[in-house]
DNA sequence: ACAAAAGTGTTCCTCTTACACCCATGA
DNA sequence: TCATGGGTGTAAGAGGAACACTTTTGT
């Protein structure tokens, strides 16, 4: 197997999902183990870029292969370019695995957000991938732990400024789910009354009139994300006469 | 001249400075013009990465060459990876200029912030580089205009969340200078009373007791940036019970 | 009846905004 | 004395933070 590459640039994707309780990330096992590089070692999904492909295209290809989904929310984070980020043994493995020859691989980190559901879990399980609690991950191959940490940090920054939370939830969701998501991603706890007030008064979600069924408590209403209101809100962001959201 | 490169990855830097009135960026002229690629074409300073160099190291090298300064504030922005981002003619020029052979160049954008002063202006002028009003730039070679726009947009986002404004000002500065900087970078106007109140009550600047001299108006006091207070403020950012700075 | 999560209001306080005049200096 | 930017205060309103109980459902 030889993939034609024109330069040793790869992409690695931290694919995040939310199971209602915790933030998960998709990990795969090393294929083609050699020597003491075990097939049990976990890594982020990634690939070398192809000749006629941009980096986001490569990242989308990785996502489609690993989740079966296209049109996933995708965001570039940092570049990892330390000349020694891949040690000699790992370098051998990479060259063998990808069918290339190179002395150095620069990788570009991405994070992706998917709406976790049974279909995806089935698909990824068939592929041998697993969804792992982000908090519980202690080691990954090469510098993938660092790439993951960087992706998580970028996600945390972004989730409070842009409406990416909705990329991690089903189309219809309860306010409680939304709140739990913020709590899981940011590692904080949020007052429920204030949260409802803020999110409802912002107008970016709309009630559907549908309610949970077969739950052993008062059924919660389902809401929808309201893109148009959000876009309007973004336009109004630079208000009249002063700086918003100055966080010094 | 042959620089050894192990892959066609380059860095391009938007070096920003502030002259007290306007945001400036450092542009250089194309060297070694060929055909109708003129020596008058303007570009961002950039370079191919060397074999044993990380990307930030390459960017710092570019900065040191173009400004004579080290220890400059430097921040990575986006990656430009369209396979056709460099047309054939430009590709010829790149290969000739850098003494390499490649079919494709992926470039990584950086922005840098420098404290503009006579020394730097002299240095850059000797090098044939110029400081140009960011607003006035209409075209640059290849996709450098896009790289610049991306850098500016990253700077605008960052300046309201982190204390990078001080990287663009002299060590001692007046509140008016600081305000003008925000106005220039963000393209807004700010109420002077509110600005003073906010910046002074934050405690991140300290008065020096020194005042302007030889100005034909009431002399303004000079202030210093107070790093330690700022770092403390950052730690307090995640407050007790709710999400800060939610901008939906 | 009980367990479990949904849903709801008010008060206090801080921060944002809008706005206009006198001061100190050099020319 | 004039031109220039420096420097100051206040009031009204919006939004953030803290806080506890009732409702609805399934078991």
Hey, roughly how much beta strand do the residues of chain A contain?
15-25%
CATH fourth-tier homologous superfamily of the largest domain in chain A:
Nucleoside Triphosphate Pyrophosphohydrolase
Alpha-carbon distance between the two ends of chain A: 53 Å
Question: Which class of the largest domain in chain A in CATH terms?
Answer: Alpha Beta
Q: What is CATH's topology name of the largest domain in chain A?
A: Nucleoside Triphosphate Pyrophosphohydrolase
- Molecular shape of chain A: elongated
Q: How many helix segments of chain A?
A: 7
Helix amount of chain A: 25-40%
Oligomer: homodimer
Low-confidence stretches of chain A: 1-6, 237-248
For the biggest sheet of chain A, the summary is:
7 strands, mixed
Query: Biggest protein-protein interface?
Result: A-B, 49 and 49 residues
Under the CATH scheme, the architecture of the largest domain in chain A is Alpha-Beta Complex
Tell me the structural class of chain A.
Answer: alpha+beta
Q: What is the alpha-carbon Rg of chain A in Å?
A: 20 Å
- Whole-number total of structural domains of chain A: 2
The averaged pLDDT of chain A comes out at 88
Beta-strand segment tally of chain A: 10
């Amino acid at each position: 197997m030889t993939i034609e590459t024109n330069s040793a640039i790869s992409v690695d994707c931290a694919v995040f999902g939310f199971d209602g309780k915790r933030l998960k990330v998709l990990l795969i096992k090393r294929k083609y183990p050699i020597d003491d590089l075990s097939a049990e070692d976990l890594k982020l999904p990634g690939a070398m870029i192809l000749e006629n492909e941009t980096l986001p295209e490569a990242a989308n290809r990785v996502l489609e292969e690993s989740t079966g989904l296209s049109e996933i929310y995708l965001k570039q984070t940092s570049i990892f370019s330390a000349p020694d980020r891949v040690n000699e043994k790992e370098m051998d493995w990479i060259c063998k695995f990808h069918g290339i020859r190179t002395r150095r691989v620069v990788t570009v980190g991405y994070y992706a957000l998917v709406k976790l559901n049974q279909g995806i879990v089935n698909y990824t399980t068939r592929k041998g991938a697993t969804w792992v609690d982000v908090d519980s991950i202690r080691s990954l191959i090469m510098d993938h732990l660092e790439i993951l940490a960087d992706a998580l940090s970028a996600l945390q920054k972004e989730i409070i400024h842009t409406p990416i939370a909705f990329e991690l939830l089903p189309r219809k969701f309860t306010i409680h789910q939304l709140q739990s998501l913020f709590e899981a991603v940011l590692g904080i706890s949020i007052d429920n009354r204030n949260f409802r007030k803020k999110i409802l008064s912002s107008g970016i979600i709309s009630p559907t009139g549908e309610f949970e069924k077969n739950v052993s408590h008062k059924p919660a209403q389902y809401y929808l994300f309201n893109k148009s209101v959000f876009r309007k809100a973004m336009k109004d962001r630079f208000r009249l006469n002063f700086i918003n959201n100055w966080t010094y």
